[in-house]
Design goal:
This protein has 14 helices and 6 strands. By secondary structure, the chain is an alpha+beta fold. The radius of gyration is 42 Å and the shape is elongated. It starts with a helix and ends with a helix.
Length: 384
């Protein structure tokens, strides 16, 4: 029972597949505080940058809107044109700042979670209508953190507001002694800088909120050992299916290998347990290549195909074992077996010339030396 319970504990980090599935469902770490802070700070900076331009445009709009004669005031058509012109002028005045804030709003999600559009996130969830689930969310750790953040924002923003007020107090009091136009410019400057400092104060909350949101999301996505095993089985496939796939792959590779046997120059046997087929073309190959190899029934099949296609066969148990063990199908033979294979190929070439009446019969079979590090101990049952 203890092992069963421990397997259900969510102690494992989420796999990439689960994170990808959660993203498809619209679940990613999000920090509303970061997005809000970015919009506020960029908006405040935008006011400082585009403030003079906006002020100039709005001032011109006000002067133009309220500068008309009596006839214009009673002409409904003229008032309509004045309204359209005022709307256009206001749009031009606010466009740069609004565009900057819009870019900030779209850039916010890139820092945590990235852009995401999922239709599943819009689907209604019936569990949210459950009163018990609602109570559980109300008294959850996440709700406690949200409450703490709300109080922290009030405290931080209030403290920064008090510090800003103290910093600009003397300047604000001096405005009453200034002329109207410089007093307005001075007041606007104080207000804009105050807004910027207040917006920057929210960054303190965002700096704390971002790691918490990532930690909270990762903790929520954690998996139990059983879930990891189930996902692995689902991803990799059931053992019996994988076994069947491997069997089919072996059969396909074996058929491809058997198709290459007729192209071999020689088949070296054990004589019954091993069979290896070799091919060598001096102009195209640096060393002989192993075309096919096998044991037992596969070895017998290689010999049958070689016999049907008049491929020479030669019994050399130590060499056959060494080639089978140390060479993969399609690879060149090991350098240590060059001499032994060269002797075999030379012997087969001499026998072919003898059969065609072009030369004497070789006196004896080659020695075929096998280096000690490439030797393979014989199987008594196979070599008997």
């Amino acid at each position: 029972m203890a092992e069963q319970d421990s397997s259900q504990e969510k102690t494992e980090e989420p796999t990439s597949r689960k994170l990808e599935k959660a993203r498809d469902e619209g679940q990613v770490p999000r920090s509303k505080e970061l997005g809000t802070t970015l919009v506020l700070v960029i908006g405040a900076v935008g006011l400082l940058i585009f403030g003079p331009f906006m002020t100039q445009r709005v001032t011109g709009l006000a002067l133009n809107s309220f500068s008309f004669d009596r006839n214009t005031a009673f002409d409904t058509g003229m008032m309509s044109s004045y309204l359209n012109a005022s709307i256009l002028e206001a749009a031009i005045a606010l466009a740069p700042w609004l565009l900057l804030v819009l870019v900030a709003a779209f850039a916010g999600p890139l820092f945590v979670g990235g852009w995401l559009f999922s239709t599943k996130a819009f689907m209604p969830k019936l569990d949210r209508l459950n009163p018990l689930s609602g109570l559980k969310r109300m008294f959850s750790m996440n709700s406690l953190v949200e409450l703490f953040k709300a109080w922290a924002k009030v405290l931080v923003v209030g403290t920064v507001a008090w510090l800003v007020l103290m910093y600009f107090f003397s300047e604000a009091m001096a405005i009453q002694h200034q002329a109207l136009e410089p007093a307005v410019d001075h007041a606007v400057g104080i207000i804009l800088w105050s807004v910027l400092f207040l917006c920057l104060s929210t960054a303190i909350i965002a700096i704390v909120d971002v790691p918490w949101q990532i930690h909270s999301f990762t903790k929520k996505m954690r998996m139990s050992m059983q879930e990891v095993k189930d996902e692995y089985k689902e991803t990799e496939g059931k053992p019996e299916v994988k076994s069947k796939v491997r069997q089919l792959q072996r059969e396909i590779a074996q058929r491809r290998m058997m198709a290459d046997v007729p192209e071999a120059d020689v088949v070296i046997t054990n004589p019954t347990h091993y069979s290896v087929a070799l091919k060598y073309q001096a102009a195209a190959m640096g060393a002989p290549i192993l075309l096919a190899k096998g044991t037992d029934q596969v070895a017998l099949k290689i010999r049958e195909i070689a016999k049907e296609n008049n491929v020479p066969q030669m019994q050399a148990p130590p060499l056959a074992r060494a080639l089978y063990t140390h060479t993969k199908v399609g690879d060149e033979i090991p350098e240590g077996l060059y001499i032994a294979v060269a002797q075999v190929l030379a012997y087969i070439y001499q026998m072919d010339n003898y059969a065609k009446g072009r030369g004497p019969k070789p006196e004896r079979k080659p020695d075929m030396p096998i280096p000690r590090d490439l030797r393979v101990d014989p199987d008594p049952a196979a070599d008997s």
